[in-house]
Amino acid sequence: MSLPLPPSYPAPSSSHPPGTDVPATCEVPHFAPVRVRGGRYQLQRLVRHRRRAVAAGLAVTAAALVAAGPRATEQTRGHPVAEPVRKHRAVKVVAAPVRIADTAAVRLLRPGDRVDVIAARETATGGDARVVARGARVTRVPEPLDDDPGNGALVVLSVPRATAARLAGAGATARLAVTLC
Question: Which domain holds residue 99?
């Protein structure tokens, strides 16, 4: 059973046999495959040279951070500076050995502690005490010698040069004591 064709389709001509209106086939010539440079091999090359890739990435990141850094007009985050750095003559700090009268007090000290050194002098009218050094940093606490327990214990303090001179003078005329800061 054949269906009738719609009126828009031309009726097949019976003058040509079916398939003769198609052009003749031609042969395709043989050619070498086409290779695109870098395509698939670019990833392999990147893996082989990953140090260069990482270095380039770090350089780009650093440049971006510098470019996006805080400006002079912007407020910086964090803790405010307590006081600005002063441009003045640097204070020369020296190590001053000091003999403290109370050996038990010296055993409490550790390197890095801050102490006040007090000179106590006995006079005919009574006792006189004054602070010779404030906030001196303990740098070393040598082991006490057992041969002379009555002389006190030695402590090495880090103080400015002028304070070291006052400590030496006070140690010659008075008994020295320390208080922890």
Answer: 93-180
